[in-house]
Write a structure and sequence with these properties.
CATH topology of the largest domain: Rossmann fold
Strand content: 15-25%
CATH class of the largest domain: Alpha Beta
Number of helices: 16
Order of helices and strands: EHEEHHEEHHEHEHEHEHHEHEHEHEHHH
Helix content: 40-55%
CATH superfamily of the largest domain: Glycogen Phosphorylase B
Number of domains: 2
Radius of gyration: 20 Å
Largest sheet: 7 strands, parallel
Length: 365
């Protein structure tokens, strides 16, 4: 039997803030070809004059469509053009690795990480919200299957109107921990204190950084300083968060950190603080656990689903709950490190790729 040809979108690698959707798409594209020789991934993206930033280089060759960015998204949704086949040639299946539905004559599957734009529209720009809503409505009509990165997201898609037989739970994974930089190098490069708490994520309101900072302010000198890692997103919280002059000196914004440095950052941190209001998955949780770093994260959503019993769970709307959670994590570091390492070992990109291939077969065969 001929290999199944799958057009595989990687446009998000060129976004200003590629984020977890790009990481997930890259990791599956890296693993799947060696896992399933009977599947040929044909990577595509818009027309770009240069490659993406170093950390987000696609692991497969990329064919270029005639447009890129917002113009490509708009033309795909409004006019059904350009068809991905204009770049990839004939394919059996299109896999949109984010919510944007590209135009195709083939069967279509899409990865959905979250529907945060429906639950928390105030945390998104008006334009972004409109694009995501249109995308989801088109997928409701056209998609043969959605790959949902958490059970929580699957339930949200079901509530939106997708029948259960069109939804598949495909959890994300984490790679083997890689420390390419020593702790001393990382502390010198980013001017880090000897002991610090860590936040990792795009700086946008739904990440709940302002409440985390308020919680830590109540704890004062009893906890280490906070190091914030992440590119600025929409509604940049570095501007909106009210950080008192007393506490401002104890929060360090490191900005975007290359993955080659991020491993050492995780390994050096006392605790990862991740009290997000809503996530489709929450990759930093698993990434921190893979380095044996204790995690504090939100209960009642996909973050709890990902963390299992290996993290301290807090109410993300309650400053005192966040503060108590940080203290608990600091006082139970050994146990949380052991539980986290075990949890991370259960969640691999190989498993994600295998389940992705199963969905392809289900749709095509």
């Amino acid at each position: 039997m001929d290999a199944m040809r799958v057009a595989y979108s990687l446009e998000q690698c060129w976004h200003r803030v590629p984020g977890g959707t790009a990481t997930a798409a890259i990791e599956v594209a890296r693993v799947l070809p060696s896992l399933r020789r009977d599947i040929e991934l044909v990577g595509f993206a818009g027309r770009h004059s240069a490659g993406p930033q170093g950390a987000y280089q696609p692991p497969i060759n990329i064919r270029q469509l005639a447009l890129s960015g917002p113009a490509l998204y708009e033309a795909s949704m409004r006019f059904g053009w350009p068809k991905v086949e204009s770049a990839t040639g004939k394919v059996d299946l299109l896999h949109c690795t984010s919510i944007i539905p590209f135009a195709t004559n083939a069967k279509l599957v899409a990865t959905i990480h979250d529907l945060a734009f429906l639950k928390y529209p105030q945390f998104f720009s008006r334009r972004g919200n409109a694009v995501f809503r249109r995308s989801l409505k088109i997928l409701l009509k056209r998609a043969d299957m959605l790959l949902c990165s958490s059970q929580s997201t699957l339930e949200d898609c079901s509530e939106f109107g997708f029948s259960r037989d069109r939804l598949s739970h495909v959890p994300l994974g984490v790679g083997a921990p890689i420390v390419m930089t020593t702790r001393d190098q990382i502390k010198t490069r980013y001017n880090l204190p000897d002991s610090f708490l860590l936040f990792v994520g795009t700086l946008e309101p739904r990440k709940n950084l302002s409440r985390l900072i308020t919680a830590l302010e109540t704890l004062g000198d009893s906890v280490p300083e906070l190091v914030v890692v992440g590119a600025t997103g929409w509604g940049d919280v570095t501007d909106s968060a009210e950080i008192s002059s007393q506490f401002k000196s104890r929060v360090r914004f490191a900005g975007f950190v290359q993955p080659s440095d991020l491993g050492a950052m995780y390994a050096s941190a006392e605790v990862l603080c991740y009290p997000s209001l809503m996530e489709g998955f929450g990759l930093p949780i698993l990434e921190a656990m893979s380095y044996g770093t204790p995690v504090v994260t939100s209960k009642g959503s996909s973050t709890q689903e990902v963390a299992g019993n290996a993290a301290v769970l807090v109410d993300p709307l309650d400053v005192s709950s966040i503060a108590s959670g940080v203290l608990q994590a600091l006082s139970h570091k050994s146990e949380l490190s052991r539980l986290g390492l075990a949890r991370a070992s259960e969640m691999t990109w190989q498993a994600t790729a295998a389940k992705t291939a199963d969905v392809y077969e289900q749709v095509i065969r």
